[in-house]
Structure to design on (1226 residues):
């Protein structure tokens, strides 16, 4: 061993011990004939003191930043203690040292506030990984991994590895494929998730399965998506929805406790998908703050005592009268917003990303009077009623958007989040969990006039809806009336776990009857032959005593990012890819040589040919 | 939850409790109007008793093997206890039941001694996985996984995930490659191991890294090789060879303790590669038994007091006189071997797999006399001396093989293992560990007249040999004299862990200096450009303060198989592939459709075209 101790463990009780440390040179400070070096390793920083006797040697062998140094000496109490360092009470009086490796000057500083841009840091990721905040992120990731494993182990779950070279069954996202040299013209696919394997393990009687596992999706990358990502993947037999929710509330609370030292005691709210959509405008609401949406026009707002439209229609204000939807949020204590601030907000909602025509406001002044941008259409009494419906009290500001239902809902949701942000209500050190339940099982595909699985084709309907699915034909004779098809109302036995407005986990109770699974494939437009070709093994397995089962998968990268208080999953991945799916450090992907192509029985089919050695 | 208890936990103290169980029907036994059903789940088997009152219901709903059943009833003491079952003291008097799913008759019996052949069990792997012995194997695998993780965690190692979509750098084994849709004409490769990434993590200062990780090699499959396999992959900084050996002796002993309940207290022998080759004939000796090889001709046998050749040469026996090598093993207490047994052994060594011309024996009779197949060439005194050199005592049998060095050594090694097997000295419940050290760093490639890395190109030479490597030119001017090139004698700072004659782990201290790494690439015939193209990121990293480091990787599948007392790794993998690299359950690999090919900018180049929908 090149060291007797790490750079993070020596303290006042070690004074007079002779020790050897090894690490990286963080800083070199010369004071006349005395030199101080801060030596860094994974565990901390320790100050080395090189006295006059080593001066000549240091001059012969100049030591720079990021050199790898081994130093032996006696632990001494510092006269000038540094309370910010755990080792700040001591320093090492160096008697001998050894330069284990040199370093050229790094292209950016190895500090939290580095001067390196994104691209440079990605190219030299091995240097970026030295920075303390990146190290903290990977340490947090490991802590989450370990906490999850320990919890699952203590509840009888088994880690069982599923294969990576599987069969391509493209639907939903694209598969990455792998040409098989031994089976010319054939391809493996990399798994988008171990979904069917974990279900087979339940059929095999393994009862409780987990895996922290890489998954692959060949999608057009949006910011903060990676072609390879990690899931905490779990499955249980003989369970109903409640059993899963309880088990995984336990897991996430255990993770909070172990990783953040935070005792999450609050009950985790369970909200239907419909409530989430109408009260927050999206299916993963950030419930760290209120400002729920009030639907001023629709009966969908179940809390309202008003019937549809009565509140705002027929006031001669065309924008509201003719709108499909009118939605309001109430900003507490914001009645003081100036005209300038309101104009700026109006511009904000008119940006193309939001896409609204305008913004209506009602100020509920402290003296009880109201001031609105639509004063001329509504009497003060009517405004009073609207403000009341939106839950506004004195000193609040009501913001109202109107337009097509989907766009308006999305815009109101964005406006709500933006206002939450501006008001400091989205504190990254506060954590609020939520279950969203009762998703629709199907979405309608206009293009193909058929149903599409909202979650995936293995999700079971709610128990009450199984018969609706079995007894009705999924065909949609009248596309215009798809909403009245019995399948449109079927709810999924599915659940998403939402943390601070991000979906961190999702799962479902699975179909475990062959007839229901076949009906599902049929609803998705698959012929019997196609279903057998792609999923024959699963349909076959369901013939041999498949148990009721269900599971969940957590997006591990995202979960870590949120627990670490960050928006970006890349900061929590040791070697991430950029937004074009490239690893700029490795320079991958890259061309391969013709021998490899030949062996794999494939040829390139590139329009503008890439150079190929 | 469909159950209040599992099928493995109820006992005499639970009598009179009302419980609900759920599981699979193992057996149905009818005795008049009473029916016994053994209900099975992952945790055990519990007997259900259906009384006369349920008879009509059972007749209406006949229950067969592998049905999934939920049953509620009272725990009762059995009159006829079964001491072989943990639940054998009780049974459940069923009051109500529910068939959760039916099963058609499985294509083979779900028992340890199943009637299903290999192919059938692979096709219905989800049924094979129900068998108790397969389940025990996967449970053992999980236990090894967990024991390794816990040990490594407690020693400060961090699990850090490395990427799966990396860069193709073919040498040694072939890469599996993945066409990139977003980068037409370019390919990712799947990692053969995370080697360079773990080294970069050391450069980044992570100090101690581990991962239980899938690796991929596109090799022609031999029996018991899988295209995807799992490694326990580890790396440490600031270490020398001894530090690694000690750390991982600790790990393997911890695994033995946790998984087998076995306290491995013996010192783990450390043997040089040369000793292994000469004393056991191979580099992964099974040291559960002795029968070391004696080299009767060469000075390489350091224990012999005879000088080269003197023992057996010039006796007029051409087979020995002219042979490059003459090797002997001594079989204890086997002097009684009959002529017939010796003839059979002679046939055994003449099989093409072994390929020897014949077998010479010397019987050391109990009365002290000697009987040999070469009596007419050697005096009794000379035979006595030979037998003594081979370590034979009264009652032992000496077996001697002669021929070309490499083949004879291999044959003697095989003969030794075969005799160990026949004599019952290779007990699968006995475990013997061994380190093999000091491998040659290079092998010579006749084809290319250059050096090949025996381990991999990142392995450092022994500290004393670094200067030899730096100061000499790797070029081999005279191919005939390659053995006298300074590089031929360079030993690697590498180590293999051998368990019962199998290599279960291997690693090395790594090169961490750019000049040495460049010299290595040069020795392997890589141009500077090629080295930069493939490993520029690593050479670059070595410029910024790379610490001394080293590591090891365990073949997790093989380690589990040996701990489980099996020869076959397939039995320890949930979803293995067959010897053609196919998953016969999924029917993968398979063709993909033309849309996928088009998107990936590739075309098939198959001679006998595969049908492609």
């Amino acid at each position: 061993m090149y060291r007797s101790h790490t750079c993070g463990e020596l303290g006042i009780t070690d004074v007079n011990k002779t020790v050897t440390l090894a690490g990286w040179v963080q800083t070199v400070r010369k004071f006349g004939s005395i030199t101080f070096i801060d030596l860094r390793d994974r565990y901390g920083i320790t100050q080395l003191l090189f006295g006059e006797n080593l001066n000549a040697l240091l001059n012969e062998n100049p030591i720079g930043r990021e050199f790898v140094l081994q130093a032996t000496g006696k632990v001494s109490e510092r006269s000038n203690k540094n309370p910010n360092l755990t080792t700040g009470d001591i320093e090492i009086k160096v008697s001998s040292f050894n330069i284990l490796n040199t370093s050229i000057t790094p292209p950016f500083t190895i500090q939290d506030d580095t001067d390196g841009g994104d691209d440079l840091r990605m190219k030299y990721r091995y240097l970026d990984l030295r920075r303390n905040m990146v190290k903290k992120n990977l340490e947090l990731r490991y802590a989450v991994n370990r906490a999850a494993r320990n919890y699952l182990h203590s509840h009888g779950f088994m880690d069982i590895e599923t294969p990576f070279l599987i069969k391509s069954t493209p639907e939903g996202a694209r598969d990455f494929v792998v040409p098989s040299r031994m089976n010319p013209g054939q391809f493996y696919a990399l798994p988008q998730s171990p979904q069917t394997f974990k279900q087979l393990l339940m059929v095999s009687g393994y009862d409780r399965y987990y895996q922290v596992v890489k998954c692959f999706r060949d999608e057009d990358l949006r910011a903060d998506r990676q072609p390879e990502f990690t899931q905490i993947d779990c499955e249980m037999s003989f369970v109903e929805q409640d059993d899963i929710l309880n088990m995984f509330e336990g897991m996430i609370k255990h993770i909070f406790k172990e990783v953040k030292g935070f005792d999450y005691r609050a009950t985790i709210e369970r909200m239907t998908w419909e409530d989430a959509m109408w009260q927050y405008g999206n299916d993963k609401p950030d419930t760290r703050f209120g400002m729920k949406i009030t639907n001023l026009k629709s009966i969908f707002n179940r809390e309202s005592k008003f019937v549809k439209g009565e509140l705002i229609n027929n006031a001669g204000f065309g924008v509201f009268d003719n709108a499909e939807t009118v939605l309001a949020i109430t900003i507490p204590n914001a009645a003081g917003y100036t005209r300038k601030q309101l104009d700026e907000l109006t511009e904000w909602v008119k940006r193309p990303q939001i896409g609204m025509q305008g913004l209506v406001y009602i100020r509920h002044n402290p003296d009880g009077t109201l001031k609105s941008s639509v004063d001329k259409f509504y009497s003060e009494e009517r405004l009073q009623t609207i403000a009341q419906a939106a839950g506004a009290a004195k000193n609040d500001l009501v913001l109202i958007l109107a337009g097509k239902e989907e766009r308006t809902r999305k815009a109101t949701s964005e406006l709500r989040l933006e206002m939450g942000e501006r008001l400091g209500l989205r504190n990254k050190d506060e954590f609020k969990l939520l279950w969203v339940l009762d998703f629709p099982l199907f979405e309608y595909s206009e293009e193909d006039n058929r149903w599409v699985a909202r979650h995936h084709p293995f999700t079971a309907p709610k128990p009450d809806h199984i018969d609706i699915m079995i007894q009705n034909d999924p065909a949609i004779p009248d596309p215009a009336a798809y909403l009245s098809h019995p399948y449109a109302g079927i709810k999924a036995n599915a659940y998403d776990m939402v943390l601070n407005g991000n979906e961190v986990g999702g799962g479902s109770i699975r179909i475990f009857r062959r007839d229901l699974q076949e009906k599902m494939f049929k609803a998705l437009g698959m012929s019997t032959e196609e279903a057998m070709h792609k999923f024959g093994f699963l349909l076959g397995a369901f013939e041999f005593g498949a148990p009721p089962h269900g599971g969940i998968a957590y997006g591990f990268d995202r979960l870590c990012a949120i627990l670490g208080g960050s928006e970006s999953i890349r900061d929590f991945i040791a070697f991430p890819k950029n937004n074009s799916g490239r690893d700029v450090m490795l320079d991958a992907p890259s061309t391969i040589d013709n021998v490899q192509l030949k062996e794999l029985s494939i040829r390139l089919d590139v329009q503008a040919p890439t150079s190929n050695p």
